Amino acid sequence: MPNPVLHQVNVLSSVLTSTVNSWRGCMVLKSAIPGVQPALPLKLYEFEACPFCRAVREALTALHLDAEIYPCPKGGTRFRPEAQRLSGRQQFPLLVDENTGVVMNESADIIDYLFATYGHRSIPKAYQPRTLRPVLGALSATLRLGRGLKARPSHLPAQKLELWSFEGSPYTRLVRERLCELEIPYVLHNMGKEHWTEAGPAVRRLRGGPLQAIPGGKREGMLARAGEVQLPYMEDPNTGVSMFESADIIDYIEERYAG
Length: 259
Fold this sequence. Notes:
Layout: H1 4-20, E1 42-46, H2 51-62, E2 67-71, H3 80-87, E3 94-97, E4 102-104, H4 107-118, H5 133-143, E5 161-165, H6 170-181, E6 186-190, H7 218-226, E7 233-236, E8 241-244, H8 246-257
Parallel strand pairs: 1-2, 5-6
Antiparallel strand pairs: 1-3, 2-6, 3-4, 5-7, 7-8
Helix pairs in contact: 1-5, 1-6, 2-4, 6-8
């Protein structure tokens, strides 16, 4: 069973990480609702502790774009060779878009591509590269004590796990870090907040009462699928397990796949 005190300490440091990063990767651009996905899934090779990878994940949240995540932590052997084959180097992030034939490194180029191709616009000011952003990103990794940085032994699931998340969420970050360390690939369903009244934890939103999801939005779809909108939410098609609560998800991942 997870240690509740240690888990809350991890949540607090994750909150600080989101604060250092100005809580980017929480809200969805109004123009990105309802969240139409490309015909073929985007593929992102990355690792959680990398500030440049984080910038790309923030853009994916803003654009409501899902992606297949292939974790490439330091010392990893599962997907790093594949990234090397695709791009000719082990540099992260690496985006593969089979809809257009694009294979690219460099976070700034990827972000520009995502907003131009799927947002049909230039990069919003909040997501444009800044000199201090990598420094703050490195500080974020320090606050998390290197979580999501180095590979650990694990068992590869036959099918990808599915995780409903958004980049700025302190709770989902804990789950993504664990999946990254264990090199477990997963489908990332970005579920950013679609309206300012959804700000805050699920039980303390600015607008009280039941969630009033935007018609046709992804949160309305999750409400129909899972009965509530609370993140993280994970489904494991290998076992049929579905669950909320970051502590429970982490405990499940460790018991099922670590080793």
